[in-house]
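Lay summary. Proteins are chains of building blocks that fold into shapes, and those shapes determine what they do. In this project we predict the shape from the chain. Here is one chain we studied, written as its sequence of building blocks.
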Amino acid sequence: MATVGIGSQFFKKSLNDYRDWLWAMPREALQNSMDAPHSKNIHVWIEVKDGNTSSPTTVFSWGNDGDPMSKEELVGKLLTLGESGKDFQGTVGGFGAAKLILLFAHLDYEIYTGNLYVSGSGGNYTLEEREHYYPGTLTKVTIEGNVQSGLYGNLRTFLCLSQWHGNIKVDNQDFTEKMKKGSRRREFDWCTIYTNKSCTNRMIIRIHGIPMFYRYISCNNRCVVVELKVADATVLQSNRDALKREYQDQLDTFIDEITVDKMSALKEEEPHYIHFAGCKLVGTSKAKETINNIITAAYATVPTHIDDEEKVTHVIEGHQALIAAPAPVSIRDTGKHSKLKHEFVIKNNTGMEIPSHYLPDDFSEYSTKLTKIWAQVLLGLYELFNKKDEFSVGFVFDDQDEAQFEDSAYGQVYYINPIAIVKQKASGSRSMSKRWKFNAAGRWAILADALHEFVHGAIGFRYHDELYSTTLTTMMGVVLKERQKFNCYFV
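And here is the predicted shape, written in a compact code that computers can read:
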């Protein structure tokens, strides 16, 4: 019999390391199941044994269909104190201290994974290899006392605050409630903050859509969702019930803004769009010539009215580009048509009036050059990575983002932010200044932003997860190797 070699009281006392272990236990169980490679389906069961006696127990079981654990992972990480498995790529946190609250602090436990079976109590366990193969991992834990209602309540809260893309059954019933992030409000280097109206006066701290903890706050009847970034799980304290102080201070400052200045911190307006109709851009083998042809003829006349069912085509450098009927948009859309030949979309997140020199029918030299570089670089990326989809370009006016990708009523649109917002401390007034310089550093920053959004759009990775980061790094290597080809797009 293998042994951990630590007294049983040590494990029981670990429950006191959490604000509420009945919240932390289902969180750790479900998170590990969601983290399991290729896990798509999770089942959870909670039942009371000997419920009418003076010493009832609760059996908490959870299983997933992901890759089973190897013997090294099971023995060397899960069943070994001081090993966390945090080097598992794409996971939120590995096993860490979770093994104490999940297994060792309770009466007994069983684990089925592949052809391995573990049965244990506290620090003592036996390991067997069996002929029967379990396609995933199933864990059963016997807990002292009747804690069924507490586990159920916290499990349901955890799932309602989650946004996981697999399927979950609780006692064989599908659980379909999910919390989407909502509207993006603030960006820090360690998190992105969103608000929604799913519940009132609550703040949820999540990683990959998996809630770590939540607390009640005063925030004008809004729900605040704080999504920690992939590489920054270290901002949490070891029990993952709270943030480390420096990060909590930043978050508290934002919450204060919600309370004191909700107009700027929780602006309710939807983005205001101005749509300038024209042909879609399509990657070709002659990307530079194509976009030059479009931009150079910027003030050529295009139809000012297009019937809803009419589609007009023009041949541009050997391919057909489509001028489509105006897309259905919000009531704030002006329905204007550009003097540019290609479609252009303005997205305004600031609530400020857009100066005319940022609109295509009255472009300044700065706006024309930025648009030309942005469109050419994107066409260059489409050419380099052999993508043929239609897309559009535009300006986004935002106080945070340098660029955005959006799949909307206008189709796929790549936005670049032409401005930086300057706020006067004394008066609180805001003004717009040029964001970009067209020196070497500025041009390559534009290319980096274009590639970032290209991976979201053309490649299809919508979330900043581990796979997105890996793909972006790989593709940046390709771009750097072919960087000479991009020099011509900056002129």
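What the prediction tells us: The first helix runs from residue 8 to 13.
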